[in-house]
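Repro case for the chain-ordering regression, as requested:
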Amino acid sequence: MGATLESNLFVFVLAAFLGYEVVRRVSPQLHTPLMSLTNAISAISVVGAVTLAGAGHGEVLLIILGTIAMACAMINVVGGFMITDRMLKMFKKRKEK
Amino acid sequence: MPLVNFPAGVGVVAPVGSSHLAASPWYVTIIYLAAAALFVLSLKWLNSHKTARRGVKAGEIGMIAAILATLFLPEVRHYNWILAAGIVGAAIGALLALLTPMTAVPQQTALSHAFGALAAALVGTAEYFAHYPHLSPVTSGSIAFETLLGYLTFTGSLVAAGKLQEVLPTRPIGYKFQNPINLSVLAAAVVCGVLMVVAPRHEMVFPIFIGLSLLFGVLLIIPIGGGDMPTVIALLNSYAGLSASAMGFVVNNKLLIIAGALEGSSGFILSMIMCKAMNRSFLNVLFGQAKIEKAAKADDIYGGKIKSVTAEEVAAILDGARRVVIVPGYGLAVAQAQHATGELFELLDSRGVQVEFAIHPVAGRMPGHMNVLLAEADIPYDRLKEMDQINSQFEDVDVVIVNGANDVVNSDARDNPNSPIAGMPILNVDKARTVVVIKRSLSPGFAGIPNPLFAKDNCLLFFSDGKKATMAIIQALKEL
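-- result from build under test --
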């Protein structure tokens, strides 16, 4: 097993456990925002799309695939964070009378 | 190392297990590391209402920093396509986020899983063609994972969104030999994936693999009915994350691996919670649709025992109540009754009644959906109670109003071991003094079985649409 794969697997397993511990503590009231937030965060795959769409010497097919991927990922990034914030803004404590 | 990214046709063999991002400049690595930390903090801050919005900020900062850092990578040289796609994507995302009504958040979430998964799948596809035919086993194996999960999540989420939006039929769609067919498609895809690793020079294997993955996504979700959507959306959430994580293995980027793993485990936890709340297993949700059991005849249970009430009678009962619990269900979302419910809450609260909401984990069409709807109607979140918090207290409750929920208050799940939903945890509303059920007709809920609660002595039925009924009760209360 290559050293790169080995370290990547370590990172993956540790991050999965960390995610488990952190997410376990999220109140069930916020499970919908949780889903949209994690989805926005994993749209970090946008960085892979950037390197494809921005490669000057690449083949046309790769640039096309990268550009579509970039647009899809950006929908997720912007849409995900915005709708999460929109939902969280609505959760209020008792109004003072 | 400028050209390592696209050695196709140049005859350069990509170094095993290494790719462009391995040689990122040090400052990019540091920014990625900081972004990973911010993503973890972002989820951590979501554990409390007070810090939740700070969590979103942390995630946004991490994301912006990571994207900016990537733009400075030496291999990124042309910005026109990045800019165009970025602007178009951001505009669509912003419109979706601003215009989606809160009742439609489940389908919006399903759509966003579809986009995220498609992005990962397309990048995987591009990486494959960039390196073909000089793929190391690690790279082609990771690409196989990334594209399988990406494409199946893409079509699966589109089908889920279609069902939630009711463009596609919401009932489970079954056909003969469903499970054998589904499993053969999956098996064929796995065989192709293995071929990609052991015999990377076969030209047709990858396109067939893509086709099978797309098909499997459709086949997997088509048989699933509306009531199982919370589990399925959570599962697709997990797959979308795992495909992003697999992409991290392909392009050797640990930030991707971490962010994907966070979503992967989050979706996994949520789907486990949903399964537990229905007393079912994953496999049963995904493959158990075919057999719909014959339930007891509705007439035997309901015959002559249903008492229906009017808004005025409900108002009279509420007039003497000191503690009221409202149980919302998917029907409340369908009837858009959240604001009327908020008004009823304010009215009762101003009359000194203690009002709370009892929320079953699988109420609605995605985890936490009801909480968002009630928050939208300005109901303070400390009045939203989880099933375990409130279940022991129903004896002290004067009136329960069930609006748009059915299976989650079906007493058969608790009392009848032969019921198809036996063992599913329910809200014990029948322990309250009086239960008022707002329902359009006696038609069964998602499980397709009658509900003995309706025939109990302390249960009254108000036959009406969820929103109209709530407004009629408000009107009648004001006229008392």
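Ordering looks correct now. The radius of gyration of chain B is 26 Å.
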